[in-house]
Write a structure and sequence with these properties.
With 260 residues, the protein is an alpha+beta fold. Helix content is 32%, strand content 23%. The strands form 3 sheets. The chain has a 5-stranded antiparallel beta sheet with strand order 5-6-7-8-9, covered by helices on one side. Strands 1-2-3-4 form a 4-stranded antiparallel beta sheet. A two-stranded antiparallel ribbon has the order 10-11. It starts with 6 loop residues before the first helix and ends with a helix.
């Protein structure tokens, strides 16, 4: 299993984890200061969901070594989530943020898992008022991520497929000799494996460089076809069956390895 998820991985895993909706929280444990296990149950069916701040979310069958004494954060989650049903699990916008809602109405609580940069896990009530937070901090002068403040749901990015005009602007700002993939990755939300997959499929290897083996005006249309395929794959991933989703993920990882 990958230990750090990109945007495409999150789209896929959120679709896969819909199978957990309707299960109740049996207990919560911590492995370390960033990693938590949520035991879920529905009749005889049992699942363990792993949350690792900044890195990943997935089910696990491995018997992870748990801390002998639960942390304060675990105890807080147990207090508010135990016996509650997982009602919703969604990605916020197209960002690397996952929102898990336990319980409904005014009794609902949310776990918000941030899977980028230094990461975070935030516990909020039904109005998204923060009850507990793994990493308190302030963004800018106004947004405070601390207890009793509201979690800003609108902070998640909403992106659309990049236009030809926008891509030309990105490419013209690049330096001659810059690898094409290196230019695209920080400007797109698809994640390195998916970008590499569609580039290779459309004839752009990892050796493709701006101004050398990539002519901006001659190759832009072929590049846009590759990026449209990435967008189609991303949108399809939100709907496809779980086995197909993870087959795609491991295919992309395989492509990443063999084309290095």
């Amino acid at each position: 299993m990958k230990t750090r998820f990109n945007t495409y991985d999150i789209v896929c895993v959120v679709a896969e984890l819909q199978k957990l909706v309707g299960m109740r929280v049996n207990n919560i444990y911590d492995i370390d200061s960033k990693t938590y296990l949520i035991r879920l149950q529905r009749s005889e069916e049992k699942q363990v969901l792993m949350l690792e701040s900044g890195n990943r979310i997935h089910t696990t069958n491995f018997e992870w070594p748990k801390n002998v004494a639960p942390s304060g954060f675990s105890m807080k989650m147990r207090k508010h989530l135990k016996n509650k049903r997982l009602e919703h699990l969604r990605q916020l916008g197209t960002d690397r943020i996952v929102d898990l809602q336990f319980g409904s109405g005014e009794a609902a609580y949310h776990i918000i898992l941030e899977l980028y940069d230094r990461g975070n896990i935030i516990l909020t009530d039904y109005e998204f008022t923060i009850s507990n937070i793994l990493r308190p901090h302030t963004e800018g002068d106004k947004v405070k991520f601390v207890v009793r403040e509201k979690y800003p749901q609108d902070r998640a990015r909403e992106t659309t497929a990049v236009t030809k005009e926008a891509m030309l602007e990105i490419l013209h700002k690049a330096k001659s000799g810059d690898p094409l993939k290196k230019v695209l990755v920080p400007n797109l939300e698809y994640g390195p494996p998916l970008i590499e997959h569609v580039l290779v499929k459309h004839g752009f290897t990892n050796a493709t460089k701006i101004g050398k083996t990539f002519n901006i005006m001659e190759d832009i249309d072929r590049l846009m076809e590759a990026l449209q395929e990435a967008e189609d794959i991303l949108q399809a991933a939100k709907k496809e069956h779980s086995k197909v989703l993870f087959l795609r993920i491991f295919t992309l990882i395989f492509f990443k390895i063999i084309h290095k």
